[in-house]
Each structure stands twice: as C-alpha cells, then as structure tokens.
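May I ask you for just one protein sequence along with its backbone structure tokens in two labelled lines?

_____
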Amino acid sequence: MADVLLQDLWFHQVEGVVIENVVSDGELVAVRARTAAERAACPTCGAWSSRVHSRYVRRLADSAVGGRPVLIELQVRRFRCGQRPCRQATFAEQVNGLTVRHSRRSTGLQKVLERLAVMLAGRAGARLSHALAAGVSRSTLLRLIRRLAEPETSTPRVLGVDDFALRKGHNYGTILIDIETRQPIDLLPDRTTSTVARWLADHPGIEVICRDRSTAYAEAGRLGAPNAIHVADRWHIWSNLAEAVEKTVVQHRTLLREPHDSATSRVTAAMENAADLDQPFPTGPRTTGRLSDRVREQHTAVHALFDEGIGLRTIARQLGLARNTVRRYANAASADELLVGRWTGRTSILDPYKPYLHQRWAEGCTVARRLFEEVREHGYPGGENVVKKYAAKLRENFPHDPPRKAPSVRNVTSWLTRHPDRLTDDQAQQLKAILARCPALDRTAHHARAFAELMNNRQGKHLDQWITSVTADDLPALHTFVTGLGQDLDAVVAGLSLRYSSGAVEGHNNKIKMLKRQMFGRANFDLLRKRVLLSARGRS
C-alpha cells in the first residue's frame, strides 16, 4: 500500500518519469524510475533530438519519507545533437523539477537545503539536516548560500542608512534599507563617505535619505544624491537630548537627596501629638477583656448582696471568693478603681528615663541594645530586658519606615525624559520635590517636555523658537545639544516634520547581530550579506 501511495505521489509531482519499483529495507527508501520523454532539447543550441546515444543510471538523494532517506535511481538517456554547427555532440536529458546538471540531489531537496542554509547557516543547519534524514555538512550549506543568486532589487524612493559592526570597535559596515517596503537593499563593507557616495551615485532616483547624525553619511548623501532630502532620525535626536539632560542632573546630583529624613519627621510629629509623651500607652482602666469583664461582674454581685445586708463572710462563701477579695470589692465604689490601680497603673523602674527614650526614638535610634547602653550611662539601674520590652511597644505604636534611598542620576534622567502620565505616583512625588529644590532641573524639565511635544506633534517649524528659549537659559549641557543641532539643522527640522524614521533600519541592524551570533562571528562579509538579503525576503 505504501509503495502504491509513493508511486502515485511521484506520478503527480514529476512529469515524464515512470516509477518501476519502490524498495524499502527499513532504513532507506529506493525509488527505481526511468524517463519517458520521446525527445530532449540540446542545452547548447536548443534543437530537439530523438536519437538516443546511450543510457545510464543517475542516483539522486531526495527529501525523506516517513523519517527515512530517499534515493532515486533514475535511468536517463544521452541523445545525439543533429545540428552540425553545434559543438555539443551528445547531451544528457534533464527532467524538469527533478534533475539539474552535475547535481546529486533532486531539485526539491536542493531547495530545502538552500532554504535551511539561509535560515540557519552552518552548524545549526547541519544538525537540522541530519534530523530531517537529509544530512549534509556545514561547509556544504555555506557553499549553497554563496551559489545562490542575489535577489533583484530596485532603487528605493526613501532610503535608510545606518552602520553595523562587523567586529565591534574595529570594523563597521553599512546597511541600506528601503524604508517604504522595510526590505534590505544592500550591505556595504565599510562606512566611509566614498563608498556610500559611490553607491548612491550608481542608484539615481533616491528622494529621501533617513540617517543618524553621522557626518560621514551626511557628506555621502550630499555627494552621491545632492537632490535628496536628509531626515535625521528622531530616536537619535531624543537620545542626544537625554544625554544632555543626564549631564545636567549629574551637575546637581547633590540636591537629589531629601534634606530631612521624612520617616523621622513623621515619628516626631506623632510622638509630639501624643497625649502624654512620658506614657505613650493608655493608662486608663480596661474596658474590654476577660479580666475586666470578670472584675466588673464580681464587683456588681458583691455590691448587690452587700446592699441586702448580707455579711462579707456569707458573700465570700456564696460567690466562692476569698474574704479579703470581697472586702476590696465592697470598699471600691466602682470596678474602674480596681482595674486602674492594680493591673494598668503599675510603676516601672524605667519611668524616669522614658522621656529620653522617646526623644532618641524620634531621632531614629530604634536599636534596643543601643538604647539600653545610653540610659545606663544616665543612671538606669535596671536590666536590658526591660528596655527591650519597652522598645518593642514603641516599635508597635510608632513604627519607623526604612530611610528612603536617594534616586540615582539615571532614575531622575528617566523621569525627566519620560511622559508624565507614565510615572507612578511615588515617582511623580519624588520628581516634584527634586524640581522644587533645584531650579536648574526644573527649567531642564520644562525644555525637555517642550521638545517632546514639538517632536511628537511633528512641529519642526517651531524648532527655532525652542532653540532661542534654551539659549537664553543658563544650562550649559543643553547649549551643547543646541550647538549640535545647528550643525545639521535642515536634517533635524525634516526629522521633526516628516513621517519618515530609521526604525526599520534599527530593526534590521538587530537582525544582523542575531545572524552574526548564529555564525559565531566567523562569517565573511559576502556570506553575511547573502544571508541578510535572502532571509529578509523568505527566499532560498
């Protein structure tokens, strides 16, 4: 059944081939077939011939079936060319969609391996090819990439230009992107002005060039495409502004920390608002609890019987209480006298030193051991456990928040260059306090937000007004940023006005980094160029 299915599959896929036999030994599927065409065309002159010279068997590897490799044993013929002027005396017939001259793989398997080589390159592709039962070496895959024809490209109307690292810190190349289709056009081996200008001159018709603020690319655009509009990338402009903001924050970093500890201030205010600083805990009678409820019930029962004229001995016998206890209940006008006097109004050896402990607690000293040592120096005669228990009560009633760490320069820079709606409440409060303490950062925040509105709304025509307002302010870092804008002002204005950007270029730049890591950084420029151009188009 499997053999019949395989024969039907081949019959529909390959015309001009007759399946004679399919043999499987469990590890290999061998397909024996022969060509059935009556004639073939000469590859040199194109004349058709039906004169058979000889026959031979070609063995072709094909795509696996059921996880097993397939070997095609195809009987082909050699024909004689009947055209006398043709120098080709004999030629072998080729089957369209199956064979290629001098190839030991079928056309289908060849396309699969080429696609595999473009996507995964050497080692990774070789491992996957063995898993697909069509194993080849990594060198074979690299040769397949180099033999592939370059994709056809047209001159783009909007060109994106950026550099990428061939070897970071040493060698850099240039990537060219069609911004409208987001497809790579070409890769250049360096980023020099002459190389880029020569490529631009060889591809006339470019109207817009999206680039960073590199002087080399700016000069190359003026030489190779003098009529093109230069558009500076908004991301790079904003990155340069963020660097200027960070320099300003560094200059005023001493003002980032709060002048007073907010936690200590809150504790001090709470202890000052307490009714009695020496006794921060309630000293009145208990109103709830098992002990207070029992005392109140017994006090009421004793006075009820005592008012009836019953003696203390009889009351003690009826209620099951000691006679002295009954006497105390009878002598107390209310139960509160008993509760205050005995259970909550006790004096402590620590009482004379509690004001000092409260003061030190409000100042932020919350370590019981240190408090004990300090009060002992002031004459405290008791033990450390008494101080520990009192410190625990203070910690429960007047907890100290951990001291807030001053925000870093990077955090403040991020808050200043971020949209206010994206700040948390705590970040907004901290930033507000910092701006209140530092007028220079307040002015910097104002200019940064004004530039953000100008950039987001594409109001490049108002850039001169923004530059004038910054120049009039005493902010050296922003002055340096403004000077840099003036060196490439037309491109900056176009970048803040037009819809074009270098986002697609940056995306392909990241993809190049991935391809380089995939090839362990050992790929030559020609191989990297082929993979970038072919993989972006999904071609093999």
About this structure: Confidence is low (pLDDT under 50) at residues 274-284, 341-345. DSSP finds 23 helices and twelve strands in the chain. The first helix runs from residue 2 to 13. The longest strand covers residues 52-65.
